[in-house]
Amino acid sequence: MKIQTRKFGEIDIDENLILTMPEGLPGFPGFDRFVLIERTETKPFCWFQSVEQPNLNLVIMSPFFFKPDYEPELDTIIEIRNWHGVKKEELLVYVVVNIAGDGEDKRITANLMGPIVVNQTTKEAVQFVFSNTNYSHQHDVIKSLEALVSCAEKQK
């Protein structure tokens, strides 16, 4: 199937990889079909692209890349979504990323309060926003990576 994207132009996608968001994406009513676009040249970033709207795409990434101790409440999501029998290991977790500025002023933040969780079995996705959490919606990705590097260097 061919879809139009703002970032990549027209691309071919496998219809079996289309994810449905039964409640849609918060802030974007009426759009409920998305696909993950992963490109080697942009790792660790990927795109959560609407199948229906070329201009609707979010930059996302795995939070575990920069915050290995991230623990979203996956049991809560499984229960609320009625994903009976689904194990946490079957879920993919992504966070929406915002990249602003250039060079020394570049800032990359991630929304740890509202992860996008993908059930690989049902091909459903949900952005679940946790209100009672210590996680930030503007977590500094670069500072987390610097802390990981510093910690690794100290262990050498």
Give the secondary structure arrangement, pairings included:
Layout: E1 2-5, E2 9-12, E3 19-20, E4 33-38, E5 46-50, E6 57-61, H1 74-81, E7 91-100, E8 107-110, E9 116-119, E10 124-127, E11 139-140, H2 141-154
Antiparallel strand pairs: 1-2, 3-4, 4-5, 5-6, 6-7, 7-8, 7-9, 8-11, 9-10
How is this structure best described in words?
The chain is α+β, with helices and mostly antiparallel strands and 156 residues long. The chain has a single domain (2-154), classed as Roll (BH3618-like), CATH 2.30.290.10. The chain has two helices and eleven strands. It has helices at 74-81, 141-154, and strands at residues 2-5, 9-12, 19-20, 33-38, 46-50, 57-61, 91-100, 107-110, 116-119, 124-127, 139-140. The strands form two sheets. Strands 3, 4, 5, 6, 7, 8, 9, 10 and 11 form a nine-stranded antiparallel β-sheet that branches. The mean pLDDT is 92.
Question: What is the structure about, briefly put?
Answer:
The protein has 156 residues and is an alpha+beta fold.
Could you list some keywords that capture this structure?
single chain; about 160 residues; alpha+beta; BH3618-like; 9-stranded antiparallel sheet; two-stranded antiparallel ribbon; 2 helices; 11 strands; about 30% strand
Overall pLDDT score: 92
Largest sheet: 9 strands, antiparallel
Shape summary: globular
| CATH architecture group name | Roll
- What is the total number of structural domains? 1
Beta fraction: 25-35%
Q: Strand tally, please?
A: 11
The secondary structure category is alpha+beta
The CATH class assignment is Mainly Beta
Order of helices and strands: EEEEEEHEEEEEH
Radius of gyration: 16 Å
**What is the straight-line distance between the termini?**
49 Å
* Range of helix content: 10-25%
